[in-house]
Amino acid sequence: MTANSHLNDYYTQDGTRVCLPIYIDVPMSKRKELLNGIRDAQNSETTSSKPSSVSGLTVETKNPRSNVHDFLGMQPDVLRGVLFQRGGLALDLIIRLQQVAGMEVLTEADIKKAFSARQKSVLNLVKETVFVPA
User: Fold this and answer.
1) Torsion angle of alpha carbons 83, 89, 91, 97, nearest 10°?
2) Which H or E run contains 124?
3) Per-position pLDDT tens, the chain of length 134
4) Fewer Cβ within 10 Å of end Cβ, the chain: N or C?
């Protein structure tokens, strides 16, 4: 599921579509922490084979494409560009990054507060925007 999808938009009875995309502007320090957490998760996906010789040597190999990449939907170089070359990041990406990195940048309470604040500001805009004919 994607948060910023037309499938999540609201349609009024007359067919007017209301789009509410959600973007999160994460501080640079948190972006770095997320990237480091992603790297740690990727590096932990190393597999070791059992010794196949008398010498007891163990071979350690990394998967060329990890589950991390599949879950995030992008390679590390692309992820780095997305994290550091954009202002806001899509909510669904933030949620996936948090899951992989094992850290919380945005809580459910934060999201609820943001919705509440946005709802108030939009409703105030509707009330305060009044045309007064000359």
Assistant:
1) 0
2) helix 108-128
3) 677 788 888 899 999 998 888 899 999 999 999 999 999 988 887 655 555 666 777 766 655 557 888 898 888 889 999 999 878 999 999 999 999 999 999 999 999 999 999 999 999 999 999 999 98
4) C
43 to 58, 64, 68: CA distances (angstroms): 17, 11, 10
Which amino acid type is present at position 58? T
Instruction: Record the pTM.
Output: 0.74
In the numeric block, the tokens 């909510």 are attached to 91
Q: What is the DSSP string of 48-115?
A: EPPP-STT----EEE-SS-HHHHHHTS-HHHHHHHHHS-SSEEHHHHHHHHHHHT--SS-HHHHHHHH
